[in-house]
């Protein structure tokens, strides 16, 4: 379920627009909105353009396009494909309506009127059933990069808070390389162990047979 949406300028994290949330939602998501501010500060020109960050029972998905960060907070069970389809729709409409003005505004929430479009789009994506029905035609038009959600980087909020992990592409590549390296090390150890067994198993068998014969002969 789509919970809340934030739109900020990527270069300095200036808030440009946000969904109008009721008091209950504001209280429930207060911590996650603070986490969103941390994410905005961590984003750099080298950051992944799309990322999902898990935090408790929720996930924060963001999309960067044309110096604007679009972030939505959803339930953890909400499909990533729908979350990024939602963000993709927002980015296209925002760029069409306000794109040339993004770099010149100075005051926060200069594009508060964008809430009308966000509210309408949020209703379409409010849960997976309505999103699948109302947004099916849009999903069919998504490009291959967006459809392949397995290529979208996934992080855990604790990694950002306590380990200081980066959102950069090179960090993601480094993590992947470390994972692959460890996998190959384990495979190499298994191969070496199997080779050692093949080399020494016959000798061990002969020794064991001699011990049994000696034990039987002198017992």
Structure description:
By secondary structure, the chain is of the alpha+beta class. The chain is 55% helix and 17% strand. The protein contains 9 helices and 6 strands. A 6-stranded mixed β-sheet has the order 2-1-5-4-3-6, sandwiched between helices. Strand 3 and strand 4 form a beta hairpin. Helix 3 runs antiparallel to helix 4. The longest helix is centred in the C-terminal third of the chain and has 50 residues, at 169-218. The model is unreliable at 142-147 and 169-174 (pLDDT under 50).
Tell me the strand order in the biggest sheet.
2-1-5-4-3-6
**N- to C-terminal separation?**
77 Å
Helical fraction? 40-55%
Question: Measured on Cα atoms, how large is the radius of gyration?
Answer: 27 Å
- Which regions contain 5 or more consecutive residues with pLDDT less than 50? 142-147, 169-174
Number of helices: 9
Question: How do the SSEs run, as a string of H and E?
Answer: EEHHEEEHHHHHEHH
Query: How many strands appear in the DSSP assignment?
Result: 6
Q: Give the averaged pLDDT, no decimals.
A: 80
Largest sheet: 6 strands, mixed
């Amino acid at each position: 379920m789509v919970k809340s949406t934030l739109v900020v300028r990527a270069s300095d994290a200036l808030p440009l627009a946000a969904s109008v949330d009721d008091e209950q939602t504001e209280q429930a998501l207060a911590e996650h909105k603070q986490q969103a501010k941390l994410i905005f500060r961590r984003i750099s020109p080298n950051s992944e353009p799309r990322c999902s960050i898990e935090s408790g029972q929720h996930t924060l998905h963001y999309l960067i396009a044309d110096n604007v960060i679009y972030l939505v907070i959803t339930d953890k069970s909400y499909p990533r494909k729908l979350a990024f389809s939602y963000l993709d729709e927002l980015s296209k409409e925002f760029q069409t309506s306000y794109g040339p003005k993004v770099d010149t505004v100075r005051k926060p929430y200069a594009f508060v009127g964008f809430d009308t479009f966000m509210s309408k789009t949020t209703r379409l994506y409010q849960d997976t059933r309505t999103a699948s029905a109302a947004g099916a035609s849009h999903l069919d038009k998504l490009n291959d990069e967006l459809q392949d959600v397995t290529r979208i980087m996934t992080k855990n909020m604790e990694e950002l808070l306590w380990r200081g992990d980066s959102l950069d592409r090179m960090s993601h590549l480094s993590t992947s390389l470390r994972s692959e390296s460890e996998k190959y090390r384990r495979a190499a150890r298994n191969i070496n162990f199997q080779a050692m067994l093949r080399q020494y198993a016959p000798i061990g068998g002969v020794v064991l047979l001699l011990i049994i014969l000696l034990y039987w002969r002198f017992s």
